[in-house]
Known about the structure:
Layout: H1 6-18, H2 24-34, H3 43-56, H4 61-74, H5 80-92, H6 98-109, H7 117-130, H8 135-147, H9 154-166, H10 172-182, H11 191-203, H12 209-220, H13 228-240, H14 246-258
Helix pairs in contact: 1-2, 1-3, 3-4, 3-5, 5-7, 6-8, 7-8, 7-9, 8-10, 9-11, 11-12, 11-13, 13-14
Amino acid sequence: MQHFAQQNITNTAWAFATISVQPKPLIQAISGRAIPTITEFPPRGLANIAWAFANFGNADGPLFHAIASCSLATICEFSPQNLANISWAFSTLCIRHAKLLDAISANVQGRCFEFTTQDLSNIAWSLASMGLRDVPLLQALASAAIAKITDFTSQDFGNMAWAFAKLMVTNEPLFNAISSEAIIKLTHFPPQNLSNLAWAYATLSISDKLLMRAIDVAALRKFAKFNSQHLAHMFWSVASLGILDKPLLQALASEVLHKIHEFNA
Length: 265
């Protein structure tokens, strides 16, 4: 790969990550070629190669150190998607680079309203995954999310609510907006997003009876598709919020018994 330019390196890494193929010699060659030429990478290239290696599950220390150093010098040139992708990559691999994370935070706070709903929820998810309780950034994300709440997908709702709950940050306007919009879209929520939404409200002790009732109704129709984690989250959530819905509890119990072999001790 010694003759590969930066775009060829990035495209190759992205392509193999997209199809979930991880030939070890090639990954090592990509890293070996990328590190000495990293200063030639534009923001999109830096974000994409970080994203690719995160998808590989490869926390290549020298490569990510080089990516972080180069990103710091060009962070103001990163697009919203570049910022979301590089945040996701570092958090997925649990790589904490304090200076880069601070730079991303400052940049995102000033540009939140340029971000798509997926970018907003992915950055929130990244913070929560690393346990970074960056309240100013979270509040900025919340304000931007409220403005675009009608565009939220089930994944966006699940990730945003889960992230704030995981970090124990309650933002009443955000959760009011989530409640109002999610309740009309719940029939399209897959099990993970239903259980994450219920778990988030229970964790933050937000009692929204209309939303929880709607979640219960949607979940009842999909319990057969719930895995053990989804079921556990739902059971814990309804119990924590004191929801005494006999048909729901019976259906939950029945599904848990059916899948008890999937539960870990």
